[in-house]
Amino acid sequence: MAKELLIATHNQHKKEEIQQILGTDFTVKSLTDYDLHEEIIEDGESFHANALIKAQYCYEKTGQPSIGDDSGLVVEALDGRPGIYSARYAGDHDFAKNMAKVLDELGDTENRTAYFVTVLCLVNQNGVQYFEGRVYGTLTKDIRGEKGFGYDPIFIADGESVTFAEMKPEDKNRISHRSQALAKLLAFLQQ
Questions:
Q1: Active-site position among 25, 43, 70, 92
Q2: Whole-number average pLDDT of the chain
Q3: pTM of the model as a whole
Q4: Most buried among 17, 27, 34, 98, by the most CB within 10 A?
């Protein structure tokens, strides 16, 4: 019988992506499936803290093994910004404004080094576990590509020649920060 995992999201796309990666040994459920609609306040000061807040909320509400995640873009020349504020850097989930703010702040700066990070937190009867994925790259000076979401149109992963938003989704998913963190989670769950 498939083991159930509750993902701290209402995002159907994210739920399906995680289900695909984890395979048929697991049944992935979302907050919507449990009719949990309270806003989870992410007031942690790190990706780890925010992931824990979400996972703990779900576990306390349902008793099911729960996964919280927090992701973002870390830009070296901006002292790590936008970081944990990535989704609301210039406007709540307005990534056109968020990208414009990052590009404006970078200006003509030569150092365009950045990385995407995803931290997954699993809370279950055995306690708390973290799984992290990172993909390093550089930021463009202009927006390129239509695919993906978030900061994908300005991020080129090391070893690639196009932005995440210009890549086929399956190519991006092969190297993305989220897929790395999920691979670590899957390896842990299969022990």
A1: 70
A2: 92
A3: 0.91
A4: 98
